[in-house]
Every structure is written in C-alpha cells, then in structure tokens.
Design goal:
By secondary structure, the chain is an alpha+beta fold. It has one domain. Helix content is 21%, strand content 30%. The chain is built from one helix and four strands. A four-stranded antiparallel β-sheet has the order 1-2-3-4.
C-alpha cells in the first residue's frame, strides 16, 4: 500500500481552516484536518470528491 501524499487542498482558504488531501491511491481520495490529524480522515471516491468540490465552488459565500 502506498503511503498517502498529503497536500493542502486548493479549496482551503488562506485562513487556518484548512484540509489536506491525498489522492495518490487508486480509486480513493483521503481528506483530513490540517491541524488535527488525530481525528482521522474521510475517504471518498474520486467522482464523489469531484462532485463535492464542484458543489462547494458553486455555493461558496
């Protein structure tokens, strides 16, 4: 199994409320809180992650 390659999501703002994304595993996108790794991670399919980020962009305040 490949170790996750975490990077700050481009969908995070410039404030401290950031998430990290690892998308180097086939068929899975991992998401976690940048400041609190102990809380674990969420996983999604690439299609579900794309749908979520498209929704977030369309409904950004």
């Amino acid at each position: 199994m490949t170790e996750p390659n975490w990077h700050k999501s481009t969908y995070s703002g410039s404030n401290d409320d950031c998430v990290e994304v690892a998308d180097n595993a086939p068929g899975i996108v991992r998401v976690r809180d940048t400041k609190d790794h102990a809380q674990g991670e969420l996983t999604a399919t690439p299609a579900a992650w794309a749908a979520f980020t498209a929704f977030a962009r369309a409904h950004a305040v």
